[in-house]
Amino acid sequence: MARKFFVGGNFKMNGSKASIKQIVESLNAAELPTDVEIVIAPPALYLHWAHDHLKDTKVELAAQNAFPKDNGAYTGEIAAPQIKDVGATWVILGHSERRTIIKESDEFVADKTKHVLEHDLGVILCIGETLEERDAGMTLEVCNRQLDAVCDVIKDWSRIVVAYEPVWAIGTGLAATPDDAQFTHHEIRKHLTEKLGEEQANSIRIIYGGSVNGKNAASFNACADIDGYLVGGASLKPEFIDIVNSRQ
Ligand code: PEP
Q1: Structural domain of 45
Q2: Residue 57: its pLDDT value, please?
Q3: Disulfide check for 92: which of 71, 124, 137, 230 has CB 3.0–4.6 Å away?
Q4: In the predicted model, is pLDDT for residue 56 greater than 70?
Q5: What angle do CA 38, 39, 41 make, to 5 degrees?
Q6: Atom number, ligand 1, closest to the C-alpha of residue 10
Q7: Residue 33 pLDDT > 90
């Protein structure tokens, strides 16, 4: 089965009502390809706002996080039912900024993934190594460890998109080279084949994240195991539409 190209935009903790409305309106006005799944992730506070302004049903919404409980005394957290209630269909989990700054463990990310999937939301599952881990030759070990925590609790990966995001490439302007990224994506798929079987592993989208922009996106076009991008900084700019169109 062909894997549908997937482009996600992670706004992180950026934006205001005015700027998010502007981004959404530019997506409404753009001619977007039908063979690309497009998902934007504004801060949770603005999901409802973005949903109200999105006219193009081709563009879906993601939350940037979720807590693994449906409701209750969890001050400051966001529940999967609330995410659905405001019209989002995806959740980004395991982003390196949450793993490193908020100290989320592999097991906690796996627990959240399980919970979010049970609510019939898709998960953009971020994995990737730090610069120190890369320099120590641990890239695949780290990615596999992060994946294994999820494999331990989830057998059906049909609603998971894996985002390989080397931490050293995020927000640095230093994207991985296409060869480097393709190598790691291939190894990730090989590992998923061992854990989940060939059929399932071949159907999982593995997208790349880390300083993708309107200029370099097309340079990954020949990479057989790169099924799209998770875009941070450039998702706030008009060039996001060039990235969405980079496979055309
Ligand atoms: C990200 O944070 O997911 C990301 C890929 O950021 P950037 O594109 O800015 O490197």
Answers
A1: 5-244
A2: 73
A3: 124
A4: no
A5: 155
A6: 3
A7: yes
Helix (H) or strand (E) holding 217: none
User: To the nearest 10°, the Cα dihedral for 36, 106, 95, 111?
Assistant: 70
| Distant-in-sequence, close-in-space partners of 233: CB < 8 Å, separation ≥ 6 | 171, 211, 213
- DSSP-derived secondary structure for 87-113: T--EEEES-HHHHHTS---HHHHHHHH
For 88-101, the pLDDT digits (tens) are: 999 999 999 999 99
For residue 79, what is the domain's CATH number? Answer: 3.20.20.70
What is the DSSP secondary-structure string of 135-168? HTT-HHHHHHHHHHHHHTT-S--TTEEEEE--GG
* C-alpha–C-alpha distance, residues 109 and 99, integer Å: 9
pTM of the model: 0.98
Section 216-236 average pLDDT = 98
Distance CA 108, CA 242 (A): 35
* Residue 144 in contact with ligand 1 by CB distance below 6 A: no
What is the 121 CA–ligand 1 centroid distance (Å)?
Answer: 22
Q: For residue 129, indicate whether it is catalytic.
A: no
- Three-state DSSP class for 79? strand
Residue located nearest, by CA, to atom 1 of ligand 1? 232
Which helix H or strand E contains 82, and what residues bound it?
A: helix 80-85
Q: Does the annotation count 95 as an active-site position?
A: yes
Q: How many domains does the chain have?
A: 1
Amino acid in position 144: N
Write the burial class of residue 200 (CB in 10 Å: 0-12 exposed, 13-18 middle, 19+ buried): middle
